[in-house]
């Protein structure tokens, strides 16, 4: 994920190519919640290279941005803010790449892998990955908690 500065922010957000979704991560160093979401976003940035992912220190982007609002994601499309997510609670009880992907694509097809050919195909892939992860976690929980003779 590309690090940008405050001076780069307006240019990056307003001059992104037409029809390219951009996810902006507002963070501060040393916040565990920010580190958790950053790991998820780094993974998504690799899986969805046609979506632009950038990170910026929150107070460089918005002076006096309150730490209580971290982690924050801003979603831009065609130079306009389309969504914002304030705090990790936006992404469910466990912040996973699959959960973040599902939230990002709830209202708009934010994520694009550049290969699936359609927004619907990408969204179906995200849903499938999310369900597979949940099923696997529950199977692991069941195996750990049961005993057989």
Automatic annotation (TrEMBL):
InterPro entries: Phosducin-like_chap/apop_reg (IPR051498), Phosducin_thioredoxin-like_dom (IPR024253), Thioredoxin-like_sf (IPR036249). One of its GO terms (cellular component) is cytoplasm. Pfam families: Phosducin (PF02114). GO terms for biological process: protein folding. Residues 5-87 form the Phosducin domain. It comes from the Eukaryota. Belongs to the phosducin family. This is Phosducin domain-containing protein. It comes from Gossypium darwinii. The lineage of its organism: Eukaryota, Viridiplantae, Streptophyta, Embryophyta, Tracheophyta.
